[in-house]
Design a protein that fits this description.
Structural class: alpha/beta
Distance between the termini: 65 Å
Number of strands: 9
Order of helices and strands: HHHHEHEHEHEEHHHEHHEHHEEH
CATH class: Alpha Beta
Strand content: 5-15%
Number of helices: 15
CATH architecture: 3-Layer(aba) Sandwich
Amino acid sequence: MTLVWPKPRQGALLKDKIMKAKAQPKPEAANAKLARKKGPVSRFIAHNYRHFNAASLLDSAKAYEAHLQAGGKMLVTLAGAMSTAELGISLAEMIRRDKIHAIVCTGANLEEDIFNLVAHDYYERVPHYRSLTAEDEQALLDRHMNRVTDTCIPEGEAMRRIEAAVAEEWVAADRAGERYFPHEFMYKILRSGKLKKYYQIDPKHSWMLAACEKNLPIIVPGWEDATLGNMYAGRVITGEIKNVHTVRTGIEYMAWLAGWYTKNAKTLRTGEGSIGFFQIGGGIAGDFPICVVPMLHQDLGRTSVPLWGYFSQISDSTTSYGSYSGAVPNEKITWGKLGAKTPKFIIESDATIVAPLIFAWILGQ
């Protein structure tokens, strides 16, 4: 085999092509400048989070902050078991500091923040949950300890205590012919003060208390799929509650959200819509509210209402056939939820790790 080396002139041409790459501005320098007036957590992120999901985390946080600075508002969705994961430690401060303007969550997240508020000392952590046998799980059931991954919620101190308090409100409303949304019933028991003597965490770590103090809009699609939803259904079956619609429905939530979005969505000077969408997890908590925009445009003809002006999702769901939770943001363009130029981010990681870091950046910590 004979090796043929390029002639000097050919080598020079090849070198010229290679050397056409230009030095690029270093994003870490710009990020360090942004973090200069922030706290140590933000400065750590700016210095270390440079690539892959770490870079997406920082890009998402910067764009969230920019959206608010441009005069926008942010809707946050909560799937999974974020309340049992005690996301309230950082989420509550975001609410108090007006960094969140509406929340959409599952019924589980609505109630589990309050479960934790009144029964935290009775929770049990099971760090070896991956090695539990069926017999171990049965033993937890026998003790009325309901497991969520590595954390067991005590039925008596948490679920039954809240059931007793909210059931009084359900029955009273039913007898008076009044109807309220699930979150409004929770606000009622928090404002009544009847639970204060049971508080077992610092109240500033409860995102539901922070939301209640702000009278924050909360939308809870599929509330029936939650512990309190099951308890409510039981009282409807026994006849203790006469009107099944004493707790208002998901369709009514969508109608309310449509009115809220129409009233609040404006076009910012950036050209984007004024309401952003920050999604933690997937499922109904994410899919239900994002659909309000195509509904307004396609079903109600309110085409002047702008699209969502920012989108970011934290998810560990992989892109797969038909999976909504794992769908990339661009898929939402085809449904009329996001625009081609809408700032879009996806962080494929654990929300219990990622969300507090993003919140820390936005809060300047």
